[in-house]
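Researcher: Here's the sequence for the chain we discussed earlier.
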Amino acid sequence: MRKMLNLSLLYFILAMVCGVFYREFTKINGYEGRTALAFAHVHFMVLGMTLFLILALFAKSGGLTEQRSFRIFLVLYNIGLPLMVVMLIIRGIIQVLGIVPAKGADASISGIAGISHIVLAVALGFLFAALKGALPGWERQQMDN
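Model: Thanks. This is the structure I predict for it:
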C-alpha cells in the first residue's frame, strides 16, 4: 500500500510540474491556443496519481501486490506512462516554438507515443489479471451478473 501511495504522490508532483511548465512556457513564448503540453498534466494526474490512489485501496485489502502479474504491471506502467508524457511534452514544445519537424522526426515522435500507448494497454491487461487473481470469487460474481 505504501508503494502505491508513494507512486501516487510522485505522479501528483510530476503533474504539478507539467502544469506549471505548460502555463509558463506558453506565456513566455506568447503562445495562445491548444497544445499537447496541456495534456501532460492531465495524464500524470489521472493515469498516475488517481490510478495509484485507487490501487492503494485494493492493495490494502491484501493479495494484489503479491500477484506476479501485478509486479509486471508496475514495471510496464511506470515505463509507458512517463514515456507517453515525454512525447506529449516534446510535441507540445515543437508546437509552441512553431518548429516544423522533418517527416522522420515527426514520425518518430508519433511512433514512440504509439509504443507507449501499447505498453500501457499491455500493462493494464496485467493489472486486470492481477485484480482477478487477488479477488477471490471474482469469476463467479461475473457469471452471476
